Model the fold of this input.
Amino acid sequence: MSETSGVAAGVRLRPIAEAELPALLRLLWDPDAPGEYQWFGFRMGTVRDLERRWHEDGLLDDESSYLAVELADGTCAGWVTWRRIGTATNLEIGIALFPEHRGRGIGTEAQRQLVAYLFATKPIHRLQAGTEVDNLVERSALEAVGFRREGVHRGVYFRDGRWRDSVMYGLLRDDDAQLHTDDPDKG
Done:
């Protein structure tokens, strides 16, 4: 069994449990939790909004949602998210893992499962994801899932005292169908 298939067997997406919500919210207020490319300052307003939302809808609704990334041993490694962009047929996805769970293929597998889930359960046509130009690990993960690089958005993120560029990736429902074909010349 390859390392990737071992990771795939041990990653599962599920609703966020109340007991793990405080730890997951660290991804928004603790500079050491989200990692270099996702620390945008203390987002306490967002923390309060998500706490309120968890009690209202479990962080699952039509506009934006969060799922826990669970490992085989029951550990919550982080979360995946999606939110509506523009029309009802477009969503943007995101991911945040705790430092001890990065670099092992967990994020790639979680995003692969999220893409499959969203295309199977939602009437959407397009998924997109953006990441900082220098975030080579996330760019590689998105490409491994099937996302295609579409371009660079200049000066999108303000992090660590300067404006950063973002690489935008897109995946269409038709692209996803090509990922699951036996023809190696497709996709």
Q: What stands out?
A: The longest strand covers residues 148-159. The first helix runs from residue 3 to 9. The CA atoms of residues 71 and 174 lie 30 Å apart.
